[in-house]
Amino acid sequence: MKKIIALALMTTAMSSAAFADAHAISEFRIGILGGENAQDRMNSNECLRIAVEDALGVPTRLFAPADYNGVIQGLLGGTIDLSLMGPSSYAAVYIADPEAVSPILVKINADGSTGYYSIGFARADSGVTSLEGMQDKVFGFGDPNSTSGYLIPSVEIPALISATMESGDYFGEVRFTGGHEQTIVAVNNGDVDGGVTWTDGQGNWEDGYTFGALRKAVDAGLVDMNDLTEIWRSRLIPGEPVVLRNALPEDVRATVTGIIDTMGETDPECATAIAGGEVTGFDPITHDAYTSIVAARLAKSN
């Protein structure tokens, strides 16, 4: 039995080495978008790193830049090959270089849908129950390149309050916190009066729903959802795409796509870890799903 196992391992190693040699790939690099502390992001994606490294037979590395722009620039500059990112971050890459990357897959929610929501929230004991209660108070965004933490609320909320998101216009102050986890902690600690983050909106509020930044914060012991309350919810946002650099050899692209595409069946725990909560797997997606996000981002820049 030991000889059989050893032979199987040797065959796998030789196949991986042959794959790498055939395509002259020296390494593969996975970028992890912000939203929680770097070590947690690295830990959540370690299973994906191992799977890709085993399949490609080359060193596979994780990169967790301090902000969203780090992943965006890495994809544009060719120092990052793959990332699961928000639609707005993908739009930023597409606007800068339409040929740089392609969306390949999207997360499937527990009910079979693929979208998610930007959600506004405040402390339950603050007396704030809606956006009207946030007038003259401090409102927290996450990151300028976040879809749910900036782009969508900055488009939808002004239409509801008939005011801009500039500090002093409706809200007393509008502040960037640095990411989703930072926004949740800032609201929970009373450093800002309200903020926005992302969620699938399914399951129970007390659990932080089934996946998203609130669920991660609950699972990490950072918040008790009974201390928070929902004050606003966006329209459904197209799901977060897994994007892959177009300059990679086609066989590499096919192999990596296959690993993630089947992860819901082959390694559900890993699928949940990299997705940020309960999912059933991943489905194919194309650029067409994100044209409205590209348009919204272009409109904001004009």
Automatic annotation (TrEMBL):
Keywords: Signal. SUPFAM superfamilies: Periplasmic binding protein-like II (SSF53850). It holds the Pfam family Phosphonate-bd. The keyword Signal applies. One of its GO terms (cellular component) is ATP-binding cassette (ABC) transporter complex. This is Putative phosphate uptake ABC transporter periplasmic solute-binding protein. The keyword Acyltransferase does not apply. One of its GO terms (biological process) is transmembrane transport. InterPro entries: PhnD, Phosphnate-bd. Belongs to the phosphate/phosphite/phosphonate binding protein family. Residues 1-20 form the signal peptide. Transmembrane segments: none annotated.
